[in-house]
Design brief:
about 200 residues, mainly alpha, Arp2/3 complex 21 kDa subunit ARPC3, about 70% helix
Length: about 200
């Protein structure tokens, strides 16, 4: 039995409907995949825009859906979709130098989603996102240390320090984007009957 146009419209505008939630989760997962392809080659880990999307997914989708979007991104890559940097795919990328960073994405998105919902100024938003970025750096550097460099100093230099200026730019961009757009949409999709401002 086909749904009536009124039923279809109600589904599209009901933010609690699973299909609406799935749309936004998929959109941010796809955005993370696209941001991985915008890279500057560098060894052992390339410069990409992935963490920009990770921070925004947590902020806009909230802790649960933000985490799910990044889990979907990782699952797609493990299953063979060319969503990792350089068009890479497969479990080998998780085991490679970038693995710790990639695996941190769901945790970082969940943390940002939790913290940013309780912050209202640009500085507070930036600090919340900075906490999420710290998770990415921590797990990324620990992975490099455990499996590649075996030196905490080298892992810090190659996995954190070298990216500090780049990720500060992304942190500034993500904070500004969310702060400005969050004046209208603090969450995507907004709660039913909510204009997004509060």
């Amino acid at each position: 039995m086909n749904d009536s146009p009124d039923t279809a419209l109600a589904t599209a505008t009901d933010s609690s409907h699973p299909l609406v939630q799935l749309f936004w989760v998929g959109l941010f997962a796809a955005g993370t995949a696209l941001s991985a392809r915008l890279e500057i080659p560098h060894q052992p880990v390339p410069y990409t825009l992935q963490t920009l999307m990770v921070l925004l997914s947590g902020a806009f989708l909230g802790p649960r859906n933000g985490m799910v979007s990044q889990m979907a991104y990782i699952a797609a890559g493990i299953l063979g979709a060319p969503v990792f940097a350089g068009g890479g795919a497969g479990i080998a990328r998780i085991l490679g130098p970038s693995g710790g960073y990639i695996l941190s994405f769901p945790l970082a998105a969940a943390l940002v989603g939790y913290l940013v919902g309780r912050r209202h100024s640009l500085i507070q938003v930036a600090l919340s996102m900075g906490a999420g970025l710290a998770v990415v750096f921590l797990l990324g550097a620990l992975h490099l240390f455990a499996f590649y460099t075996h030196s905490i100093v080298t892992a810090f230099e190659a996995g954190v320090l070298i990216f500090s200026w780049w990720d500060l730019l992304k942190l500034s961009a993500a904070s500004t984007i969310y702060f400005e757009m969050g004046k209208r949409w603090k969450r995507l999709p907004p709660p039913p009957g909510d204009s997004g401002t509060n």
